[in-house]
Write a structure and sequence with these properties.
Oligomer: single chain
Strand content: 25-35%
Largest sheet: 8 strands, mixed
Radius of gyration: 23 Å
Strand order of the largest sheet: 6-5-4-3-2-1-14-15
Helix content: 10-25%
Low-confidence stretches: 1-23
Mean pLDDT: 94
Number of strands: 25
CATH superfamily of the largest domain: Ribonuclease Z/Hydroxyacylglutathione hydrolase-like
Shape: globular
Structural class: alpha/beta
Distance between the termini: 89 Å
CATH topology of the largest domain: Metallo-beta-lactamase, Chain A
Length: 384
């Protein structure tokens, strides 16, 4: 009798587990706080997709998010369009040890040759190639489908209006991702008759005044809207009209600039919830004390205890160049350290930045020092 009871219990569990596995869904969207840049991590049933990668300087925060969220590989990377605040971070990603399944990008682009397209260059570093997307294409990740709603035709005058517009459909909800779509592409999208209803809307183009009409907000009718922007870097964003439009339809708005790390949005049964993550402060006494355009050198001073520099990096604002300190780099207590480039006089530096003419010699430029988690520690202008 006992044996029959055990067998019956096992039979019930076997019948129950498949149904449970099918219902154990997961849908989340992480929006990185990376200035006005876009860097989004979409998770669907354990599959991870990076949608845009922010600036090159965004790498520390992106790396911190991967570590905290325990993301060790990406099923896909999708680049909505070629603007640097969406695309420049791809170069670091391609050079990292994070596996990437597929690379996708908008089939429509302007202002760049195919060989120099940021997604093409990034994929080539991995001996991979780009899969081009346009209206009518779709991707599947677990129980989620990502439908490409736009673009359908290229816009040769405005790269923002070549942005991929993606509808994520999942048993737990719908997310509409819009890149930097402006009124031109938006008008075509609205005229298409597509069902744009969603639970979460990524407001296009940092909520600038050239995007996101009231008609789009009514068509999408989200419960929650996320805005990637920084009002200091991009003044007048988010536009008051857009915030008022969201309030009018009863949608809550969250902004990436409201935290130092990222906003994580989770959907369950069509209901979104979110948390903000702030990055821990770095207790370091490092600062940039000299930036010499002619010599192309940067000098740091350490006024505290000896500091390992593995994971730290320098960033040049004008050219967007990035220097990662070697893993064994150190700066002792009270010491200085000079970084030079291929343009620097021989013997004028301690570490080589394998680039040339990093510091602009006639226009305003600044060199910034970032901690491994992407927090800005110190910066200095080039004197112009």
């Amino acid at each position: 009798m006992k044996r029959f009871g055990v067998v019956f219990l096992i039979f019930c569990l076997m019948a129950f587990l498949p149904a449970y596995a099918e219902s154990a869904h997961e849908l989340s969207l992480v929006a990185l706080s990376a200035g006005k840049a876009d860097a989004l991590i979409l998770t669907m049933d354990g599959r991870h997709v990076l949608i845009d990668a922010g600036y090159a300087r965004s790498m520390g925060k992106l790396r911190a998010a991967f570590e905290q969220l325990q993301i060790t590989e990406l099923d896909a990377v999708i680049l909505t369009h070629t603007d640097g605040d969406h695309a420049d971070g791809l170069d670091w990603l391609a050079g990292s040890d994070i596996p990437v399944g597929e690379w996708y990008a908008s089939a429509m682009y302007t202002g760049v040759k195919t060989k120099k397209h940021p997604a093409v260059r990034a994929a080539a570093q991995r001996n991979q190639s780009v899969i081009w997307l346009q209206r009518g294409d779709s991707l599947r990740f677990g129980s989620a489908e990502i439908a490409v709603l736009a673009p359908e035709t290229p816009n040769s005058n405005n790269e923002n209006d070549n942005s991929l517009v993606l509808m994520v459909s999942h048993p737990d909800g719908r997310i509409l991702l819009t890149g930097d779509m402006e009124f031109g592409e938006e008008g075509i999208l609205l005229a298409s008759g597509d069902d744009l209803r969603c639970d979460v809307l990524k407001i296009p183009n940092h909520a600038d005044d050239d995007t996101c009409s009231d008609a789009l907000l009514r068509a999408a009718s989200p419960s929650l809207a996320v805005i990637s922007t920084d009002s200091e870097e991009k003044p007048e964003t988010p536009d008051r009209r857009i915030l008022a439009g969201l309030a009018q339809i009863g949608a809550e708005a969250v902004q990436t600039q409201e935290c130092s790390g990222w906003i994580e949005i989770r959907l369950e049964g069509g209901s979104p919830s979110y948390t903000r993550t702030d990055l821990p402060n770095i207790d370091a006494a490092l600062r940039v004390i000299d930036v010499l355009p002619g010599d192309d050198t940067i000098t740091l001073r350490n006024d505290g205890a000896a500091q390992a520099l593995s994971g730290w990096y320098l960033y040049s604002s004008k050219g967007g160049e990035l220097f990662l300190f070697p893993q064994d780099a150190m700066i002792g207590a009270g010491e200085t350290l000079t970084v030079g480039t291929l343009s620097s006089p021989e013997g004028s530096f301690d570490l080589l930045w394998n680039d040339k003419k990093v510091i602009h010699t006639s226009k305003t430029d600044s060199i910034a020092l970032y901690a491994p988690n992407g927090l800005l520690i110190s910066q200095m202008r080039n004197g112009f």
